[in-house]
Amino acid sequence: MTSNIEEYTIPLTHKKRGVIEDISEIAAVGHRVVHGGEEFSNSTVITPRVIRVIKSYFKLAPLHNPPNLLGIKVARKLLPGIKHVAVFDTAFHQTIPPSAYLYALPYNFYRRDKIRKYGFHGTSHKYVALKAAEILRKPITKLKLITCHLGNGCSITAVKGGKSINTSMGFTPLEGLVMGTRSGDIDPAIVFYLMNKKNLSVAKIDNLLNKKSGLLGMSG
């Protein structure tokens, strides 16, 4: 974290390119956070407990939750007198039914360790669904939609009546479609093969699947 925290305000208050005249105009700050598990189904004011939950999901969202939390720390130091709100990617998908979010694993893994499909890009999928309803001039409650979030990270979601009922990402943002550097769905036995035949550690496989696969890996 930079020692000169005031540098972050320069783009906001720049005379030609800024969007506000003074930092005091900011009434609240919203922070996108990728993984909130089952704890949050809505946006929530950031408290010490919320920060602990964000930290607890570092391992499940290694590309996202750590920098998300860093941004929160910087903003809270810069703007200590206002509310900071976490908007979780996983929140929109809390309406997915058990038939879609449970994996075919021993049930104790869900009950004890909360291993299940969580889904991500929820803020994007919710926005796209609402925008589609607006463009179609139909109530969101009457629509059945497939929404797509396509970028370096990719996911698709089935939305019924404005609620997520299934999505391509799962326990982590690694599952689902082929992405920029993430593999998406692969045969799980490939992991065992890499460990046994190539002598790769868990950490190296994690790095391989998250940062060196997908379109990057396929392109050679």
Automatic annotation (TrEMBL):
HAMAP family hit by this protein: Acetate_kinase
Organism: marine sediment metagenome
PROSITE patterns linked to this entry: ACETATE_KINASE_2
GO MF assignments: acetate kinase activity; ATP binding
Keyword field: ATP-binding, Kinase, Nucleotide-binding, Transferase
SUPFAM superfamilies: Actin-like ATPase domain
Membrane spanning stretches: none
Protein name: Acetate kinase
